[in-house]
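Colleagues,

For the teaching module next term, I've prepared a clean inverse folding example: a structure given as tokens, and then the sequence designed for it. I'd like students to try predicting residues themselves before seeing the answer, so please don't circulate the second half yet.
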């Protein structure tokens, strides 16, 4: 049972037998092929509502029982989904209130999925009934491992019920209308509310510029979604199941703050769809994907599951490329390198009709195992069987980058020096890539995380300071940590109201030993420069002008009327150091800068002093007993060979060596 979840890497994926209930030959073949592919678990029932309750109140779970039983008797476990991600047609027809209302306040028709209101009492009741019954029927089945609550919760509903719920949430938060008016600065443009009923969700035909409202609506959407997720969890608990629950998240998905799910789900899982061989280089894609795994791992700071990835191509980019031979294995094991205890696919078998009929699958319409994709999937399954020792090992970085969703929402909403082009996520990745290239693991954390385990904390563009973050950063530096802060930081409080007095506000000016004054927004084609350590670097997008007090200037602007002014500074504060970078530098700067900085702060790359070739990285998972596993990955189409600082043993074949040879797209698991 749950032991598989903890002690073995899961290999499998989304399985939709409900599309082939009239084809026992296909269902039989599925089992045969799953065994061949070393599949040990599949996710069932994700969009199966109309097969589970074809008519209101008429439940038909027999087929599901057969499927789960057959899988189990063949050694394959079930991740059992609740079907709430897509309501059945009869329900939408009979109870239109279950359908979502869009931002223009029009109710959707039946169609698509994820098209339901999270507030509708009818939808909640129907979901409760379904989930509870599923739990009663299968919650103690020895073949069921885990609950997969819904599917990719996302989006928002603007129906009257949701708007009323928003007002209740605000009442709870602010207590009085007066407090809300102050927090949102509603005296501006005569927006003062005199009755709670006047408060509406932001929308294109209404208000979108009251930043406090916009930010609170986004927070509310997350809270509503978390509430719906926990409603589903309570329903399976009410059905007597105490199996762990998860829900499949979507990485950097903008509209939800996933950190708020950390106490609802028992294990984090997410769906990973990198665009290999796409517009960005594979190395850049690998960096972005690595960061996404790290973001997802940091929701709970525990190993997670990669719930979906495609075995070949997706069908929703404008152009969908195949993975070159080897890429699938590398991309799958990249997840493991960053803390995943599974490689699962969307999807096991390709649908015959509807929108995903050309989406990659382990079994395509040809239906047999002699395909390139099937062989590669099988090979991944074989390798995962030898990696069980990693299940209890976690990634434990000494470096963290603050990447806070609320901060992103707020800084994107603000009308300021570069509208619509602040590039928070890309900026974070400019810092991140430097560590990836050195083979150093990084945590991506929110303002709510604890900083005490890190030696180095980087806080790019920390525009919004929620209560407590400034003190936390201050204590971190005073206690001996190294902080790197940047332009556009510490400007507003958690209500998105500007700090009065010197900035970075909320008392960081003495930590950085400077105050920020003005900021220049650059057009995309423009740049400034700085010279640091004898090299010239381009500066783009935003150039902040700072006034150092105790901080020491390390680099100055070269151009424009602010040539000669500080752009990079450092300040000793307590036992630590705070660096301040006043502009967005080109990527090579971060590589050079952090290479020096990690030596100063005592952060060691996973492979020590070993020089990693371009496109190669290393990640480490450490078990509670201290045993470390090192995963080296080659994201190039060339064989790479390089000497190691210290000899390592190949975990899969037991061979020790003091150099490494990685095949094109090769990945190796090593131990010390
Ligand atoms: C998402 C969904 C799946 C499927 C895939 C296609 O991740 O969860 O149901 O639609 O996308 O890539
Ligand atoms: Zn609604």
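(Answer key — instructors only)
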């Amino acid at each position: 049972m749950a032991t598989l979840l903890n002690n073995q890497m899961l290999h499998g994926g989304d399985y939709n037998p409900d599309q082939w209930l009239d084809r026992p030959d296909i269902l039989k073949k599925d089992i045969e092929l799953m065994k061949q592919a070393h599949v040990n678990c599949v996710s069932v029932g994700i969009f199966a509502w109309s097969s589970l309750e074809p008519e209101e109140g008429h439940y038909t779970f027999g087929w599901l029982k057969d499927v789960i039983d057959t899988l189990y008797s063949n050694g394959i476990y079930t991740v059992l989904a609740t079907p709430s991600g897509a309501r059945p047609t009869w329900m939408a027809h009979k109870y239109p209130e279950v359908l979502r209302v869009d931002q223009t306040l029009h109710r959707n028709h039946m169609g698509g999925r994820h098209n339901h209101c999270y507030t509708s009492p009818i939808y909640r009741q129907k979901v409760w009934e379904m989930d509870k019954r599923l739990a009663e029927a299968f919650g103690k089945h020895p073949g069921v491992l885990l609950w997969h609550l819904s599917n990719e919760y996302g989006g928002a509903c603007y129906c009257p019920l949701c708007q009323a719920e928003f007002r209740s949430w605000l009442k709870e938060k602010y207590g009085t209308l007066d407090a809300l008016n102050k927090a949102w600065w509603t005296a501006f443009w005569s927006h003062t509310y005199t009755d709670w009923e006047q408060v509406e969700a932001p929308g294109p035909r209404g208000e979108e510029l009251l930043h406090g409202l916009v930010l609170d609506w986004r927070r509310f959407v997350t809270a509503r979604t978390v509430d719906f997720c926990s409603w589903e969890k309570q329903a399976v608990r009410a059905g007597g199941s105490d199996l762990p629950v998860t829900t499949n998240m979507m990485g950097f998905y903008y509209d939800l703050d996933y950190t708020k799910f950390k106490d609802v789900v028992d294990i984090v899982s997410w769906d990973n769809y990198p665009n290999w061989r796409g517009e960005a280089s594979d190395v850049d894609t690998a960096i972005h994907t690595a960061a996404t795994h790290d973001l997802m791992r940091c929701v709970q700071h525990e190993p997670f599951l990669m719930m979906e990835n495609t075995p070949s191509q997706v069908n929703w980019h404008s152009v969908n490329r195949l993975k070159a031979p080897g890429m699938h294995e590398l991309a799958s094991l990249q997840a493991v390198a960053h803390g995943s205890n599974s490689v699962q696919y969307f999807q096991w078998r390709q649908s015959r009709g509807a929108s995903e009929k050309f989406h990659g699958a382990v079994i395509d319409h040809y239906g047999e195992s002699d395909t390139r994709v099937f062989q590669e999937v099988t090979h991944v399954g074989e390798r995962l069987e030898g990696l069980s020792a990693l299940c209890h090992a976690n990634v434990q970085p000494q470096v963290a980058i603050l990447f806070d969703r609320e901060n992103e929402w707020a800084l994107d909403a603000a009308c300021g020096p570069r509208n619509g082009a602040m590039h928070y996520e890309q900026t974070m990745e400019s810092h991140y890539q430097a560590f990836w290239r050195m083979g150093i693991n990084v945590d991506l954390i929110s303002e709510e995380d604890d900083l005490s385990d890190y030696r180095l904390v980087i806080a790019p563009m920390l525009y919004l300071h929620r209560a407590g973050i400034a003190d936390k950063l201050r204590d971190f530096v005073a206690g001996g940590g190294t902080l790197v802060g940047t332009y556009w930081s510490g400007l507003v409080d958690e209500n998105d109201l500007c700090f009065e007095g010197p900035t970075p506000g909320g008392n960081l000016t003495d930590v950085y030993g400077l105050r920020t004054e003005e900021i220049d927004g650059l057009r995309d084609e423009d740049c400034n420069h700085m010279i640091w350590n004898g090299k010239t670097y381009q500066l783009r997008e935003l150039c902040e002008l700072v006034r150092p007090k105790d901080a020491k200037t390390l680099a100055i602007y070269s151009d424009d009327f602010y040539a000669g002014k500080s752009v990079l500074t450092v300040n000793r504060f307590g036992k630590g150091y705070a660096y301040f970078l006043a502009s967005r530098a080109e990527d090579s700067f971060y590589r050079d800068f952090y290479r020096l900085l990690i030596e100063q702060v005592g952060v060691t790359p996973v492979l020590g002093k070993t020089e990693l070739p371009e496109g190669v990285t290393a990640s480490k998972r450490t078990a509670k007993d201290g045993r470390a596993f090192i995963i080296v990955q080659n994201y190039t189409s060339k064989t790479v060979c390089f000497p190691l600082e210290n000899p390592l043993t190949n975990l899969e074949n037991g061979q020790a060596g003091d150099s490494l040879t990685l095949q094109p797209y090769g990945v190796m698991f090593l131990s010390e």
